[in-house]
Amino acid sequence: MSKIEQIYMDEALREARKALEEDEVPVGAIVVYKRKVIARAHNQMRMLKDPTAHAEMIVLTQAASYLKNERLTGAIIYVTIEPCAMCAGALILARVKRWVYGADDPKAGACGSVLDIVRNRKLNHRIEVKKGVLAEESRILLKEFFKKKRRKKIPKDYSL
Amino acid sequence: MSKIEQIYMDEALREARKALEEDEVPVGAIVVYKRKVIARAHNQMRMLKDPTAHAEMIVLTQAASYLKNERLTGAIIYVTIEPCAMCAGALILARVKRWVYGADDPKAGACGSVLDIVRNRKLNHRIEVKKGVLAEESRILLKEFFKKKRRKKIPKDYSL
Fold first, then answer.
1. Which listed residue, A84, A123, B10, B104, has the most CB atoms within 10 A of its CB?
2. pTM of the full predicted structure?
3. Whose CA is closest to B76, among B138, B2, B136?
4. Catalytic residue among A56, A82, A128, A144
5. Which residues does B contribute to its contact with A (CB < 8 Å)?
6. Does A21 participate in catalysis according to the annotation?
7. What is d(CA A83, CA A79) in angstroms, rounded to the nearest whole number?
Protein backbone atom coordinates (compact mmCIF):
# COMPACT_ATOMS: atom_id res chain seq x y z
CA MET A 1 0.00 0.00 0.00
CA SER A 2 1.57 3.28 -1.13
CA LYS A 3 1.71 6.46 0.94
CA ILE A 4 -0.46 8.30 -1.58
CA GLU A 5 -3.14 5.61 -1.39
CA GLN A 6 -3.21 5.95 2.38
CA ILE A 7 -3.58 9.70 2.16
CA TYR A 8 -6.51 9.45 -0.23
CA MET A 9 -8.16 6.63 1.72
CA ASP A 10 -7.88 8.79 4.82
CA GLU A 11 -10.01 11.36 3.00
CA ALA A 12 -12.61 8.67 2.25
CA LEU A 13 -12.54 7.59 5.90
CA ARG A 14 -13.20 11.16 6.96
CA GLU A 15 -16.40 10.99 4.88
CA ALA A 16 -17.31 7.64 6.46
CA ARG A 17 -17.01 9.23 9.90
CA LYS A 18 -19.49 11.92 8.86
CA ALA A 19 -21.96 9.13 7.95
CA LEU A 20 -21.47 7.57 11.39
CA GLU A 21 -22.24 10.89 13.06
CA GLU A 22 -25.45 11.10 11.01
CA ASP A 23 -26.47 7.56 11.97
CA GLU A 24 -25.90 6.23 8.46
CA VAL A 25 -23.91 3.09 7.58
CA PRO A 26 -20.35 4.54 7.71
CA VAL A 27 -19.07 4.34 4.16
CA GLY A 28 -17.15 7.14 2.46
CA ALA A 29 -15.79 7.68 -1.04
CA ILE A 30 -13.76 10.20 -3.01
CA VAL A 31 -12.86 10.56 -6.69
CA VAL A 32 -9.35 11.62 -7.70
CA TYR A 33 -8.65 12.99 -11.17
CA LYS A 34 -5.20 14.19 -12.22
CA ARG A 35 -4.11 14.05 -8.56
CA LYS A 36 -6.97 16.32 -7.47
CA VAL A 37 -9.95 15.30 -5.31
CA ILE A 38 -12.94 16.25 -7.47
CA ALA A 39 -15.73 14.61 -5.45
CA ARG A 40 -16.31 13.40 -1.90
CA ALA A 41 -19.40 11.88 -0.28
CA HIS A 42 -20.71 9.53 2.35
CA ASN A 43 -23.66 7.18 2.50
CA GLN A 44 -26.94 9.12 2.82
CA MET A 45 -29.48 6.38 2.22
CA ARG A 46 -31.54 7.02 5.29
CA MET A 47 -31.26 10.79 5.40
CA LEU A 48 -32.34 11.13 1.76
CA LYS A 49 -34.71 8.12 2.00
CA ASP A 50 -33.18 6.91 -1.25
CA PRO A 51 -32.04 3.30 -1.78
CA THR A 52 -29.56 4.48 -4.42
CA ALA A 53 -27.78 7.05 -2.20
CA HIS A 54 -24.61 5.05 -1.51
CA ALA A 55 -21.38 7.04 -1.16
CA GLU A 56 -20.02 5.67 -4.45
CA MET A 57 -23.13 6.66 -6.42
CA ILE A 58 -23.07 10.19 -5.04
CA VAL A 59 -19.38 10.73 -5.84
CA LEU A 60 -19.82 9.37 -9.37
CA THR A 61 -22.64 11.85 -10.02
CA GLN A 62 -20.57 14.68 -8.48
CA ALA A 63 -17.46 13.79 -10.48
CA ALA A 64 -19.40 13.54 -13.76
CA SER A 65 -20.92 16.94 -13.05
CA TYR A 66 -17.45 18.38 -12.32
CA LEU A 67 -15.96 16.94 -15.52
CA LYS A 68 -19.12 17.72 -17.52
CA ASN A 69 -18.93 14.20 -18.89
CA GLU A 70 -20.71 10.95 -17.98
CA ARG A 71 -17.49 9.07 -18.73
CA LEU A 72 -14.91 9.39 -15.94
CA THR A 73 -12.02 8.07 -18.02
CA GLY A 74 -8.79 8.32 -16.04
CA ALA A 75 -10.52 8.83 -12.68
CA ILE A 76 -9.60 6.85 -9.55
CA ILE A 77 -12.18 6.13 -6.86
CA TYR A 78 -11.31 5.46 -3.23
CA VAL A 79 -14.03 3.85 -1.15
CA THR A 80 -13.83 2.54 2.40
CA ILE A 81 -15.52 -0.82 1.71
CA GLU A 82 -16.05 -3.26 -1.14
CA PRO A 83 -18.88 -1.91 -3.35
CA CYS A 84 -22.20 -3.72 -3.75
CA ALA A 85 -23.62 -4.83 -7.12
CA MET A 86 -25.25 -1.45 -7.77
CA CYS A 87 -22.06 0.52 -7.13
CA ALA A 88 -19.80 -1.90 -9.00
CA GLY A 89 -22.17 -1.70 -11.98
CA ALA A 90 -22.08 2.09 -11.82
CA LEU A 91 -18.26 2.10 -11.76
CA ILE A 92 -18.27 0.12 -15.00
CA LEU A 93 -20.79 2.46 -16.64
CA ALA A 94 -18.71 5.46 -15.58
CA ARG A 95 -15.57 3.92 -17.15
CA VAL A 96 -13.56 4.57 -13.97
CA LYS A 97 -9.91 3.66 -14.48
CA ARG A 98 -8.97 2.38 -11.04
CA TRP A 99 -10.74 1.62 -7.86
CA VAL A 100 -9.14 1.32 -4.43
CA TYR A 101 -11.12 0.03 -1.48
CA GLY A 102 -10.64 -0.80 2.19
CA ALA A 103 -12.55 -3.61 3.90
CA ASP A 104 -14.26 -6.56 2.21
CA ASP A 105 -18.05 -6.85 2.48
CA PRO A 106 -18.78 -10.56 2.96
CA LYS A 107 -22.57 -9.98 2.77
CA ALA A 108 -22.96 -8.01 -0.43
CA GLY A 109 -19.51 -7.25 -1.90
CA ALA A 110 -19.41 -7.38 -5.69
CA CYS A 111 -15.67 -7.61 -6.14
CA GLY A 112 -15.18 -11.23 -5.19
CA SER A 113 -16.96 -11.61 -1.83
CA VAL A 114 -20.45 -12.47 -3.13
CA LEU A 115 -20.29 -11.52 -6.81
CA ASP A 116 -17.46 -10.50 -9.09
CA ILE A 117 -18.90 -7.89 -11.39
CA VAL A 118 -15.95 -5.64 -12.00
CA ARG A 119 -13.70 -8.30 -13.47
CA ASN A 120 -16.44 -10.00 -15.51
CA ARG A 121 -14.91 -10.57 -18.94
CA LYS A 122 -18.24 -10.34 -20.72
CA LEU A 123 -18.74 -6.70 -19.73
CA ASN A 124 -17.27 -4.00 -21.94
CA HIS A 125 -14.99 -2.26 -19.46
CA ARG A 126 -12.27 -3.48 -17.13
CA ILE A 127 -11.24 -1.66 -13.95
CA GLU A 128 -7.97 -2.03 -12.03
CA VAL A 129 -8.81 -2.98 -8.46
CA LYS A 130 -6.74 -2.63 -5.31
CA LYS A 131 -8.18 -3.79 -2.01
CA GLY A 132 -7.24 -3.75 1.67
CA VAL A 133 -6.11 -0.11 1.94
CA LEU A 134 -6.71 1.01 5.56
CA ALA A 135 -9.19 -1.88 5.81
CA GLU A 136 -8.96 -2.13 9.58
CA GLU A 137 -9.97 1.51 10.03
CA SER A 138 -13.05 0.95 7.84
CA ARG A 139 -14.01 -2.20 9.71
CA ILE A 140 -13.76 -0.46 13.10
CA LEU A 141 -16.22 2.21 11.93
CA LEU A 142 -18.68 -0.42 10.66
CA LYS A 143 -18.42 -2.41 13.89
CA GLU A 144 -19.10 0.71 15.92
CA PHE A 145 -22.20 1.45 13.84
CA PHE A 146 -23.71 -2.03 14.13
CA LYS A 147 -22.94 -2.20 17.85
CA LYS A 148 -24.86 1.03 18.34
CA LYS A 149 -27.74 -0.30 16.21
CA ARG A 150 -27.95 -3.50 18.20
CA ARG A 151 -28.20 -1.47 21.37
CA LYS A 152 -31.10 0.45 19.83
CA LYS A 153 -32.65 -2.81 18.55
CA ILE A 154 -32.92 -1.60 14.98
CA PRO A 155 -34.06 -4.27 12.43
CA LYS A 156 -31.28 -6.60 11.40
CA ASP A 157 -31.66 -6.13 7.65
CA TYR A 158 -29.48 -3.02 7.59
CA SER A 159 -27.29 -3.50 4.59
CA LEU A 160 -24.41 -1.48 3.25
CA MET B 1 -48.53 -12.10 -20.37
CA SER B 2 -51.53 -10.59 -18.62
CA LYS B 3 -53.54 -7.64 -19.90
CA ILE B 4 -52.57 -5.55 -16.86
CA GLU B 5 -48.87 -6.20 -17.46
CA GLN B 6 -49.26 -5.01 -21.05
CA ILE B 7 -51.00 -1.85 -19.93
CA TYR B 8 -48.24 -0.99 -17.47
CA MET B 9 -45.47 -1.88 -19.91
CA ASP B 10 -47.10 0.41 -22.42
CA GLU B 11 -46.60 3.22 -19.90
CA ALA B 12 -42.92 2.31 -19.60
CA LEU B 13 -42.65 2.25 -23.41
CA ARG B 14 -44.13 5.74 -23.55
CA GLU B 15 -41.22 6.86 -21.34
CA ALA B 16 -38.71 5.05 -23.59
CA ARG B 17 -40.09 6.97 -26.59
CA LYS B 18 -39.42 10.24 -24.76
CA ALA B 19 -35.78 9.15 -24.36
CA LEU B 20 -35.57 8.43 -28.10
CA GLU B 21 -36.87 11.92 -28.88
CA GLU B 22 -34.17 13.35 -26.61
CA ASP B 23 -31.44 11.29 -28.31
CA GLU B 24 -30.94 9.10 -25.24
CA VAL B 25 -30.82 5.28 -25.27
CA PRO B 26 -34.58 4.53 -25.31
CA VAL B 27 -35.29 2.82 -22.01
CA GLY B 28 -38.30 3.61 -19.85
CA ALA B 29 -39.48 2.48 -16.43
CA ILE B 30 -42.42 2.94 -14.08
CA VAL B 31 -43.10 1.86 -10.49
CA VAL B 32 -46.52 0.55 -9.50
CA TYR B 33 -47.61 0.46 -5.86
CA LYS B 34 -51.06 -0.71 -4.82
CA ARG B 35 -52.17 -0.56 -8.47
CA LYS B 36 -51.11 3.07 -8.78
CA VAL B 37 -48.22 4.40 -10.92
CA ILE B 38 -46.09 6.28 -8.38
CA ALA B 39 -43.01 6.98 -10.52
CA ARG B 40 -42.11 7.15 -14.21
CA ALA B 41 -38.83 8.01 -15.91
CA HIS B 42 -36.63 7.47 -18.92
CA ASN B 43 -32.92 7.23 -19.41
CA GLN B 44 -31.24 10.64 -19.04
CA MET B 45 -27.59 9.70 -18.91
CA ARG B 46 -26.43 12.07 -21.59
CA MET B 47 -28.75 14.97 -20.83
CA LEU B 48 -27.76 14.98 -17.14
CA LYS B 49 -24.17 13.91 -17.90
CA ASP B 50 -24.56 11.35 -15.16
CA PRO B 51 -23.49 7.70 -15.58
CA THR B 52 -26.02 6.67 -12.92
CA ALA B 53 -29.06 8.27 -14.59
CA HIS B 54 -30.66 5.10 -15.96
CA ALA B 55 -34.47 5.00 -16.07
CA GLU B 56 -34.63 2.38 -13.28
CA MET B 57 -32.43 4.42 -10.92
CA ILE B 58 -34.49 7.55 -11.44
CA VAL B 59 -37.82 5.76 -10.80
CA LEU B 60 -36.45 4.10 -7.66
CA THR B 61 -35.42 7.48 -6.25
CA GLN B 62 -38.80 8.97 -7.23
CA ALA B 63 -40.77 6.08 -5.72
CA ALA B 64 -38.78 6.18 -2.46
CA SER B 65 -39.42 9.90 -2.26
CA TYR B 66 -43.17 9.34 -2.86
CA LEU B 67 -43.38 6.60 -0.21
CA LYS B 68 -41.04 8.50 2.14
CA ASN B 69 -39.17 5.26 2.63
CA GLU B 70 -35.98 3.86 1.12
CA ARG B 71 -37.56 0.39 1.15
CA LEU B 72 -40.08 -0.13 -1.65
CA THR B 73 -41.61 -3.26 -0.15
CA GLY B 74 -44.60 -4.36 -2.24
CA ALA B 75 -43.67 -2.23 -5.25
CA ILE B 76 -43.56 -3.57 -8.81
CA ILE B 77 -41.23 -2.11 -11.40
CA TYR B 78 -41.84 -2.26 -15.15
CA VAL B 79 -38.85 -1.58 -17.36
CA THR B 80 -38.55 -1.91 -21.12
CA ILE B 81 -35.25 -3.81 -21.12
CA GLU B 82 -33.28 -6.17 -18.89
CA PRO B 83 -31.51 -4.06 -16.23
CA CYS B 84 -27.71 -3.78 -16.04
CA ALA B 85 -25.68 -4.70 -12.93
CA MET B 86 -26.13 -1.25 -11.37
CA CYS B 87 -29.91 -1.25 -11.76
CA ALA B 88 -30.34 -4.88 -10.68
CA GLY B 89 -28.27 -4.13 -7.57
CA ALA B 90 -30.43 -1.09 -6.84
CA LEU B 91 -33.62 -3.17 -7.17
CA ILE B 92 -32.28 -5.51 -4.50
CA LEU B 93 -31.34 -2.63 -2.19
CA ALA B 94 -34.81 -1.11 -2.65
CA ARG B 95 -36.47 -4.44 -1.72
CA VAL B 96 -38.72 -4.27 -4.77
CA LYS B 97 -41.23 -7.13 -4.78
CA ARG B 98 -41.56 -7.86 -8.47
CA TRP B 99 -39.90 -6.76 -11.60
CA VAL B 100 -41.30 -7.06 -15.12
CA TYR B 101 -39.15 -6.30 -18.13
CA GLY B 102 -39.36 -6.38 -21.92
CA ALA B 103 -36.35 -7.19 -24.11
CA ASP B 104 -33.19 -9.01 -23.05
CA ASP B 105 -29.89 -7.11 -23.11
CA PRO B 106 -27.29 -9.57 -24.41
CA LYS B 107 -24.42 -7.07 -23.81
CA ALA B 108 -24.96 -6.04 -20.19
CA GLY B 109 -28.16 -7.66 -18.85
CA ALA B 110 -27.89 -8.71 -15.22
CA CYS B 111 -30.85 -11.05 -15.11
CA GLY B 112 -29.34 -14.00 -16.92
CA SER B 113 -27.89 -12.54 -20.13
CA VAL B 114 -24.41 -11.62 -18.83
CA LEU B 115 -24.82 -11.80 -15.05
CA ASP B 116 -27.57 -13.08 -12.80
CA ILE B 117 -27.63 -10.73 -9.85
CA VAL B 118 -31.27 -10.69 -8.93
CA ARG B 119 -31.57 -14.41 -8.28
CA ASN B 120 -28.21 -14.74 -6.52
CA ARG B 121 -28.93 -16.85 -3.45
CA LYS B 122 -26.15 -15.27 -1.41
CA LEU B 123 -27.79 -11.84 -1.49
CA ASN B 124 -30.34 -10.97 1.17
CA HIS B 125 -33.38 -10.25 -0.98
CA ARG B 126 -35.12 -12.19 -3.73
CA ILE B 127 -37.23 -10.54 -6.44
CA GLU B 128 -39.91 -12.16 -8.62
CA VAL B 129 -38.94 -11.64 -12.26
CA LYS B 130 -41.07 -11.76 -15.38
CA LYS B 131 -39.47 -11.11 -18.74
CA GLY B 132 -40.54 -10.72 -22.35
CA VAL B 133 -43.50 -8.37 -21.84
CA LEU B 134 -43.87 -6.31 -25.06
CA ALA B 135 -40.24 -7.20 -25.78
CA GLU B 136 -40.57 -6.63 -29.53
CA GLU B 137 -41.76 -3.05 -29.05
CA SER B 138 -38.73 -2.33 -26.81
CA ARG B 139 -36.34 -3.89 -29.28
CA ILE B 140 -37.72 -1.83 -32.18
CA LEU B 141 -37.04 1.39 -30.24
CA LEU B 142 -33.47 0.33 -29.47
CA LYS B 143 -32.82 -0.66 -33.09
CA GLU B 144 -34.11 2.68 -34.26
CA PHE B 145 -31.79 4.50 -31.85
CA PHE B 146 -28.64 2.60 -32.83
CA LYS B 147 -29.43 2.90 -36.54
CA LYS B 148 -29.63 6.66 -36.12
CA LYS B 149 -26.36 6.66 -34.15
CA ARG B 150 -24.56 4.67 -36.81
CA ARG B 151 -25.67 7.18 -39.40
CA LYS B 152 -24.19 9.95 -37.26
CA LYS B 153 -21.03 7.89 -36.65
CA ILE B 154 -21.26 8.15 -32.90
CA PRO B 155 -18.65 6.06 -30.96
CA LYS B 156 -19.62 2.42 -30.68
CA ASP B 157 -19.28 2.15 -26.92
CA TYR B 158 -22.78 3.46 -26.29
CA SER B 159 -24.13 1.17 -23.67
CA LEU B 160 -27.56 0.86 -22.11
1. A84
2. 0.91
3. B2
4. A56
5. 45-46, 48-54, 57, 60-61, 64-65, 68-72, 84-90, 92-95, 107-108, 110, 114-115, 117, 120, 122-124, 157, 159
6. no
7. 8
